[in-house]
Specification:
The chain has about 300 residues and is of the alpha/beta class. Helix content is about 35%, strand content about 15%. The chain folds into two domains: about 5-185, 3-Layer(aba) Sandwich (Rossmann fold), CATH 3.40.50.2000; about 190-305, Rossmann fold, CATH 3.40.50.2000. Helix 1 (about 20-35) packs across helix 8 (about 270-280). It is globular.
């Protein structure tokens, strides 16, 4: 089943809170579902709700807790994940209870989850959204890979954010046995806008990722490109009134800046890459330290589509 096949249904939708990429890439899917006459309820944190309201001011929300996790300062994602496993499992169990109760009380037809492993129901069709069927893990991290695939099998189907040829995510999105996959192509919130033919900004640098890496990345990029436009997380303060410094909390302003960009410089997060691919903008990318997925994507795309 593809998104365009869901019409006039009652849908419960939620996305992972580890960064805003999951929110960003879900916007085009939600927009399509709404245009097809579906009622969509977004289960979200207050921070996620503020962003979604920018695009969908009248959509229905229900407050839903984040997964408790913080990226450590040493760039060791696997270790940070294991360290948080106890609290993550507790949140998983609470999420399972919440979803089943909400589905029963509100006559939900479909449950859609962008990378929330516990956000599914045994009562209705539940779909997991990801570009990672296969995690970019080492041999020593094989138990995490097995757990990942076991959790995926709790869902009726996986919507894969890529083509069937795995054109954009490489080995991460390739099919594996026992998991029903539907490839829905790349998703970008910029599908909501007309493509801007005339580009007026030479270079836009998007600063993202966990602290302290975002601050270090900003310093490095500002030294290299002092005249560029910068999209910055709110924790990075700038003593400047210049319009070329835009905080990421102002999503519509960020959209305007990116739509006007001739070139983009950013981390190699998959949601950002999908935006770049959709807009067909020349790019310069680099991975966030300690994030094997971003490192793989950076190397994959450098071989396939050389960056500037």
């Amino acid at each position: 089943m593809k998104p365009e096949q869901i019409i006039h249904k009652n849908i419960l939708f939620s996305v992972l809170n580890w960064g805003m990429g999951h929110v960003a890439r879900s916007i085009s899917i939600i927009d399509q579902l709404l245009k097809q006459g579906n009622k969509v309820t977004i289960a979200a944190s207050n921070q996620q709700r503020q962003i979604y309201t920018t695009y969908f001011p009248s959509i229905h929300f229900v407050l839903h807790e984040d997964y408790p996790f913080n990226f450590g300062a040493k760039g060791n994602f696997g270790f940070d994940l294991v360290k948080s496993s106890g609290t993550l499992f507790q949140r998983y169990r609470k999420e399972r209870t919440f979803v089943e109760k909400y589905v029963f009380e509100n006559a939900i037809d479909f449950v859609l989850s962008d990378h929330r492993y516990g956000f599914y129901s045994n009562k209705v069709t539940s779909i997991f959204i990801t570009h990672q069927i296969n995690l970019p893990l080492s041999f020593f991290e094989k138990p995490i890979q097995l757990l990942h695939k076991k959790l995926l099998r709790n869902f009726n189907e996986i919507w894969v954010l890529d083509t069937e040829e795995s054109e954009f995510a490489g080995k991460l999105s390739k099919k594996t046995s026992g998991i029903i996959c539907t490839y829905i192509g790349i998703q970008s919130r910029f599908k909501l806008y007309p493509i801007q033919e005339k580009k007026t900004i030479d270079l836009v640098v998007v600063i993202s990722g966990p602290s302290p890496y975002n601050s270090l990345y900003f310093k490095e990029m500002f030294d290299k490109y002092p005249k560029a436009f910068f999209i910055l997380p709110t924790e990075i303060e700038i003593n400047s009134l210049e319009e070329r410094f835009v905080h990421s909390s102002d999503w519509k302003r960020c959209d305007e800046v990116i739509l006007a960009a001739k070139k983009i410089c950013s981390r190699s997060g998959y949601s950002t890459l999908m935006d770049i691919y959709y807009l067909a903008i020349p790019y310069l990318i680099s991975p966030t330290p300690g994030q094997a997925e971003q490192r793989y994507l950076c190397e994959f795309m450098a071989k396939k589509k050389p960056a500037i």
